[in-house]
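Backbone geometry:
***
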Amino acid sequence: MAELNEGAAAEVTSIFIYPIKSCRGISVSQAPISPTGFRWDRQWMVVNSKGRACTQRVDPRLALVETELPNEAMFEGWEPNKNSYLVIRAPGMQALKVPLSKPSLTTEGISVWEWSGSAFDEGDEAATWFSNYLGKPYRLVRFNEASETRAVDPEYAHGYKVTFSDGYPFLVLSQGSLNALNTLLKEPISVNRFRPNILVDGCEQYAEDLWKEILINKSAFYGVKLCSRCKIPTINQETAEMGSEPTQTLKQFRSGQVLLPNKKQQGSVFFGQNMVCVDSLGQVKIIKVGDPVHVIKAVPSCAEAAA
């Protein structure tokens, strides 16, 4: 467990961004906060011939697609130049370099969940690369923040927005929660199954469920909704193989029936907390590994948490 600063409830031990939705994440030592979450997070997405999002739910092999950004991309205020690239790798494939400067071509009819709109198209070379890797026609698109807005569900957080994330700008998880789960599994799993943005340590297991407001490096994060999990945590991120765990075990003690007995049940299991950052509405801030986490407001039990 992390050794905490005086007065801190936890400490940031890892920061992850996922440049391409559903592809492998990058562990970084610091990340700037943008109006849609961490900068570069879920900026890109693989889409099928109808413009619909392709995720690991559709093709688990996306788990094996690695991304790399320039180190300086995590610095506050950094802007790409003509030699700045997102580098994409996958087994059996040559590395693909996608310029970080905005492409000029846009395409209509792109959709993810309930949202549809236009996006930048990263061109034929990227389309051929993903089509060859996945064996069907796919294209790589980039969110166009100049023309499009994708709002967070106003029932949980009003006035916030995301790019291609499933629903919320940040997902916070504690090492204690992962450790507690792993003691119940026959084969321990890595944190990458859960795709958090911020991993913290030093707090009790599942403490993050209760956090309604936390401070990290003077940035205020608000817990808006326990994270209901899809089948992606059952996909081994090293092999792309799908199993029944950890969902089968989570159903025993992390289901809505157990955690939220007074609320309408939808068969969900919960792990981690979705959050928004109030600073994302204003000036750029940065958070770093090692930053203390201060809890400003918490609810007494999961039954009072939103989900």
Q: What stands out?
A: Helices lie at 124-134, 175-182, 247-253, 256-259.
